[in-house]
Specification:
This protein is α+β, with helices and mostly antiparallel strands and 365 residues long. It contains 9 helices and 14 strands. Helix content is 23%, strand content 30%. Strands 1, 2, 3, 4, 7, 10, 11, 12, 13 and 14 form a 10-stranded antiparallel sheet that branches.
């Protein structure tokens, strides 16, 4: 079970009450950049990840068929050891992960009033007529303020960034479909269909549901702040703990899949100590089937090394989860899910914009 929230459900919650099908619109209108909002000062004790959001030339070219957005205000990089960026492929995934573990272990363990995480999620959906279907990419941002104390309330804000054709070929198919401004996905009997809008929506407040207000998600299951802070920083002990949690799920997900997804969450966005984050990297290094890819860029154009975990489905299809890591700091940048075939296809992604402890009060909206 993935730890990520249901992107389509949140997007449907974010859509306006009335979405009448309007006239065809030009893609340039969909991808127009909104005005930048004034930067808000945040008192952060330690930044886990600083997102350099200036896209590369390749990413800039891709923006013609993707929803544009405001880049987040970059924050200072963490004070951990940095190595010169290298374009060489690491000798092995295990060696690269052990170096990353060494880098993050040198970080300082801190805390604060709120653990704040800002992420961007994207998902590829097939829409259009049966005779000429095409792919679109839905995007949304989520900003969560999780309180350390039960005296404070946790908050979550989200915003639909809209949807647009995924590739140039998809854009051409979209134009043949009449350049629709929205798409409707059928729903099971008794449920409302999901309307996907090309235009983005307003920023909204959502109360975290399905778990305690101060809980986090690890391996698709809620975990309390106390349990999270008590995680062992020894790789073998951490693996044993996660194996026991996997048994509690009934084994609906393969054990290696569960271990990879759980360790992925620990290095990407959960507020754990540097020692636990290092142990999670070492745990991933010990899993079978882990490989590295050449230097890649995430969906914000940030360069990193992708550690790939590939699995084969019952029908022989292959899928791959890629954890993109900054080789200079050892910090994780993003997770991407790919379908592998004659033409590899990005199915979804979760990109970390920032994660930090803060003593500030959450924004009003």
């Amino acid at each position: 079970m993935s730890r990520h929230r249901d992107v389509v459900r949140l997007l449907s919650e974010a859509r306006p009450a009335q979405l009448d099908r309007g006239p065809s619109i030009d893609l340039a209108t969909i991808t127009a950049f909104p005005q930048d909002a004034p930067a808000r000062k945040t008192n952060t004790r330690r930044l886990v990840l600083a997102a350099g959001l200036v896209p590369t030339a390749a990413a800039a070219a891709a923006v013609t068929v993707m929803i544009a957005q405001n880049p987040a205000t970059p924050a200072p990089r963490p004070t951990v050891s940095q190595r010169p960026a290298s374009t060489d492929k690491p000798a092995t995934a295990q060696q690269f992960l052990l170096v990353a573990a060494e880098q993050v272990a040198a970080g300082e363990a801190t805390t604060g009033r709120y653990w704040t995480v800002t992420t961007e999620h994207g998902e590829t959906r097939q829409v259009g007529p049966k005779a000429g279907p095409y792919d679109i990419v839905l995007k949304m941002t989520a900003e969560r303020w999780t309180a350390s104390s039960p005296k404070d309330k946790s908050w979550e804000f989200y915003q639909s960034l809209g949807a647009a054709p995924a590739t140039t070929a998809d854009k051409e198919a979209w134009e043949r479909d009449g350049s629709p401004a929205q798409w409707t996905e059928p729903a099971p009997k008794g449920m409302k269909p999901v309307v996907i809008a090309a235009a983005g929506g307003p920023r909204r407040l959502r109360t975290p549901g399905g778990m305690g207000p101060r809980d986090y998600l690890l391996g698709g299951q809620p975990i309390s702040p106390a349990a999270l802070s008590a995680l062992p920083d020894d790789p073998a002990a951490l693996k044993a703990y996660l194996v026991n949690r996997h048994k509690d799920t009934g084994g609906l997900e393969g054990r290696n899949d569960y271990l990879f997804n759980s360790a992925d969450a620990l290095v990407l966005e959960l507020p754990v100590t540097p020692g636990v984050r290092a142990a999670a990297y070492k745990l991933i290094a010990g899993l079978k089937g882990i490989t590295t890819l050449d230097t890649v860029t995430d969906q914000h154009g940030r360069k990193g090394v992708a550690v790939a975990y590939t699995r084969r489905g019952d029908a022989g299809t292959r899928s791959q989860t890629r954890l993109i890591i900054d080789p200079r700091t050892g910090h994780a940048l993003a997770e991407e899910s790919w379908y592998l075939g004659a033409r590899d296809k990005l199915m979804s992604y979760s990109l970390l914009v920032s994660a930090a402890w803060s003593d500030d009060a959450p924004p009003a909206k």
